Amino acid sequence: MLKYKLVVSDLDGTLLGNDGNVSAATKELIQSYQRQGGIFTVATGRMEDAVKPHLNLLNVAGPAILYNGAKIIDMDKNDIIFEAFLKYEVAKEALKLLQDYEWDVLLYQNGKIYIKEMTPGIEKHLKKEDVECEVVGDLHDFLQLAPTKILIIGDNGKFDFFSQDLQNRMGIKINFTQSEETYLEILPEGASKGAALKTLADALKISIEDVIAIGDHLNDLSMIQVAGLGIAMENAHPQLKDNAGFITVSNEAEGVKEVLLRVLNDLDFSYNIPDADAI
């Protein structure tokens, strides 16, 4: 019997190589893990259209955590387990304040992305996630309903100032996270991968102690902390490594593959495997 019943992995910088793909060896181990009764899924900042192709290729049918914890959905059944929205007044004020910054802003609402205008930065992001967007002009004027999240791509040296300024204007603590050095996201209150992981484990009737979470950046920190075993990639942010119960090899060296090898062979996570392929 498997010790860990649920394995949840981040996508970018974790399950995916730098080329945006999952190796054949990792795919086979995911299938082996599922055949033995385990549940494998992903927790990502991506939207539905950017995740479903990967789940289809991996033949993963379980619920996925999207938008950095703002939504949990079984896309095969179109069954929403959890969904949260960014407060309209927070989103509205954020979009107004962002007019003072030369940053790329993407508004996520109803499974779509809306932008003011196309830029090289946005084009690069869309290409990476293989999704499309709609150009609508001024986002502050466009917004009429509470969105799922706002993604900002820009100079992270100014993110702290912007975050504090927005919170001072609103008079409340606002939920920010970073999934990459140049990405700042504004999320619904209380939404995080960690909170979503707890909700997902409860829905699947799996103890959180029987869950492995794997990630590489600050948006993964909460799920690394709440999982029975939190694992950081070798290429992970230092803060994630400090909080992880185990550090696997990098995404380019197929760190998720190493984790699954240990799980399937009931190997301890307290020592390194000299040659994972030899197992």
From TrEMBL:
The entry's keywords: Hydrolase
This protein's name: HAD family hydrolase
Organism for this UniProt entry: Anoxybacterium hadale
